[in-house]
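Student: Send me a single protein entry containing the residue sequence and its fold in token form, directly below this note:

Tutor:
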Amino acid sequence: MENNRIQEFSETVIQINRISKKTKGGNQIRFSALVVVGDRKGKVGVGLGKAPNVVSGIRKAISQAKKNLIVVPFKGTTIPYQISVKYGAAKLLLKPAPAGSGIVAGGPLRAVFESAGVKDVIAKILGSNSKTANLYAAMEALTKLSELGEKQEFIKRNKENAK
């Protein structure tokens, strides 16, 4: 029964930071890992894990990313609508792209779309250079896209029922 639930996820480590904290006994060194997890079929998640060593930090980040999976809406091989999102200092612009144009996105956004399985998209980072902020902004944008899609379908169903 356990084997039926296992899904194959691609895990991409985006960034590993070394964190040092001054304490009474000296410096306390830890690591934070930023990871993107996706099944390349429409599910993607982002996780940030902190631990005394790198491997534990990555493991924590992956488990957090799997807890925060979202479903990405598709229209063919791209996203359904253009959307602009602001998350903290990060600003993103996501646009649908014609089939065959590929993922035109910089840095961490490329990993999100590859993990989600989006083949064609244009994305521009307009605000912060922080990878963490940009990843969370991308997740917010994809969440809003799915909510917009649900609203569109709800409106469409109500119009059909009214006829």
The domain at 2-67 is CATH 3.30.160.20 (Double Stranded RNA Binding Domain). Helices lie at 2-5, 54-67, 108-116, 131-162. The longest helix spans residues 131-162.
